[in-house]
Design a protein that fits this description.
The chain is mainly alpha-helical. It is 79% helix and 0% strand.
């Protein structure tokens, strides 16, 4: 038998192959691969379309998400007031008043502190800038006085140029969008606080049986995860702000209160928020006071961050909200690309909600089948 010879096919085998329907080719290994590839492509198209729609409707979607987060944070208080017989409208008004009083008080304190200390900080900043320029001029690679003057002239030209004016107009437009989103968030938050359970029950009307039970678990897990994340993060952020604020006040660093509030707000951006806030506080201490004060502030920032990472986060946040650092980093990157600073703030709680939904997909403590642990974890 020759090397390239083949056994002749009988008439029965030829007839069977000819009789096979065309769609049977999708049943072999290559056909299954093609099917999976088409499914993945369709899912990616749907996800891309949803993300594109969300980016076009950020003025609506972001206020609604923020309202949902705030409503979830106040859900235990609202449930307690309802159990005590407080009417829903009264409980809602009390919750909104508490939010307004807290935010209004914080804004008033910040504005007052900035107004009282801004002139001193400006003068000290000018002196500090001159000192930095004088120190830089002693370096072997220091820029010349003409280069420094050219840089200042470039800044002045930019401020007085039409480009800066267009940037101001863009800032005015952004401020208008911010106010619109704020009003929408307050209105949506009012209805979420007042009729949240009724709204969710209305959305669950199409579901029955196991699907209804799963949707109920998803809703409860979402509210619990968002509320726990906000309350836990606020507690950790408050400790950070108080610790760093006390050090700034003892050192008599200008704008200690606004810097402490900034530390509190940036703590809601995981991984990078605390670093940025600490760097800014250290820079202000360096410019306004001296190098010794800046070093003390830096040590305080590092100590507070270590306390937060090793004690406060595991105890206050709980393991149910614990995400791997890589997941947080990826979520932060995606959120920042899609929604800027607001996206960075919302990305981690949304990721935590997604993981929480996976954990209760098939039961109260039964994750989805593909995410169940099948082998011991490698240490």
């Amino acid at each position: 038998m020759g090397l390239f010879s083949s056994t002749p096919k009988g008439p029965t085998e030829v007839v069977q192959r000819a009789a096979r329907p065309p769609w049977s080719q999708w049943g072999d290994s290559f056909g299954r691969l093609a099917t999976r590839s088409l499914q993945i492509i369709l899912v990616l198209i749907v996800v891309a379309g949803a993300i594109s729609a969300m980016t076009q409707l950020t003025l609506v979607i972001i206020p609604v998400i923020l309202a949902l987060i705030f409503a979830s944070a106040f859900a235990p208080a609202m449930s307690w007031m309802r159990r005590k017989g407080v009417p829903s409208i009264v409980a809602t008004i009390l919750a909104l008043l508490a939010i307004v009083v807290v935010l209004g008080g914080v804004v008033t304190l910040i504005v007052g502190a900035v107004r009282n200390q801004f002139d001193d900080l400006r003068d000290q900043a000018v002196q500090g800038f001159d000192q930095v320029v004088e120190w830089v001029s002693t370096l072997p690679f220091a820029p010349t006085e003409q280069q420094i003057g050219d840089a200042r002239d470039a800044v002045i030209d930019f401020v007085t140029s039409a480009q800066f004016g267009s940037g101001v107009l863009a800032g005015v437009s952004a401020a208008a969008n911010f106010l619109t989103g704020l009003v929408l968030m307050v209105v949506v938050l009012f209805f979420f606080l007042k009729d949240g359970p009724r709204i969710w029950e209305f959305l669950l009307r199409p579901f029955e049986g196991d699907s209804y039970a799963r949707a109920k678990r998803i809703g409860d897990k979402t509210v619990g995860t968002l509320g726990g994340y906000v309350r836990g993060t606020a507690t950790v952020a408050l400790v950070d702000a108080v610790g760093i604020g006390v050090v700034l006040a003892i050192l008599q660093v200008p704008l200690a209160l606004p810097l402490a509030v900034l530390v509190f707000l940036l703590a809601f951006v995981p991984l990078v928020g605390a670093t940025v806030a600490g760097a800014l506080a250290t820079l202000v201490a360096l410019v306004a006071n001296d190098l010794t004060s800046a070093i003390i502030v830096l040590v305080a920032v590092v100590a507070v961050n270590q306390l937060e990472g090793n004690f406060l986060q595991p105890v206050v946040m709980g393991r149910s909200l614990k995400l791997h650092a890589l997941v947080i980093l990826i979520a932060l990157t995606i959120g920042t690309v899609l929604g800027g600073i607001v996206g960075a703030v919302l990305s981690v709680p949304i990721a935590a909600v997604a993981w929480g939904i996976v954990q209760v997909w098939d039961g109260p403590d039964r994750p989805a089948r593909m995410f169940r642990q099948k082998r011991p974890e490698v240490a």
